[in-house]
Amino acid sequence: MSLKKIYENQPDKFSFDDNNLKLAVKILEKYPAKNKKSAVMPLLYLAQKQNQNWIPLAAIKYIAKFLSVPYINVYEIATFYTMYNLSPVGKYFVQVCTTSPCLLRGAEKITSICKQKISPKQQELEDGKICSWTEVECLGACVNGPVIQINEDYYEDLDEKNTIKIIDSLLNDKPLKSGSYRNRKSTAPESNRNLNGEKNA
Ligand code: FES
């Protein structure tokens, strides 16, 4: 992500709300006092959740103060890991896996739908500012490809038709259910069959 993009649209202030403050204190209790800086990743995650899926620079400063560590220590972690979003991604952030197994199963069609329906460019909010998308490497659910991750949920076994329905549901702020779109249970074979193709009892 470009630095320019990171420095746009920044709020001046950030602090944890009451609920997250309690959670942050609980997280700190898991670490010895001398190692409390190790709590930086869960705290960044809390900040991202509180702030519509992205972490403003003010939150990085706030967490640095909260942990009594230099700002740069938190900044370098927030900018290193791709699961931390440092610019607005919308209420629904669609991450499309484009690694080989998903590509072989049609991930390119899914990125085309995102380009048409959300934005021609990755990491850019659509007009309603509710949704953005990006390509990512393997989401670890290859056997259910093609796969997209929307916020914390996986949508699996997709094709063009159901991807269009899913993206439309996000744009209408009524997200469809997550999981397999071929009615598979986790990674089990379809139609309640076992690995030999026989029907389970
Ligand atoms: S290749 Fe897409 S989830 Fe692994």
Bound molecule types = FE2/S2 (inorganic) cluster
Radius of gyration: 19 Å
Structural class: alpha/beta
CATH overall fold name of the largest domain: Glutaredoxin
Tell me the strand percentage band.
5-15%
How many helix segments?
A: 8
Number of domains: 2
| Name of the CATH superfamily of the largest domain | Glutaredoxin
Strand order of the largest sheet: 2-1-3-4-5
User: Runs with pLDDT <50, length 5+?
Assistant: none
Overall shape: it is globular
Distance between the termini: 51 Å
Give the mean pLDDT. 91
CATH architecture of the largest domain: 3-Layer(aba) Sandwich
Helix-strand sequence: HHHHHEHHEEEHE
Number of strands: 5
Strand count, sense and closure of the main sheet? 5 strands, mixed
Notable features of this structure?
alpha/beta; single chain; 5 strands; five-stranded mixed beta sheet; globular; 10% strand; Glutaredoxin; Arc Repressor Mutant, subunit A; binds FE2/S2 (inorganic) cluster; 201 residues
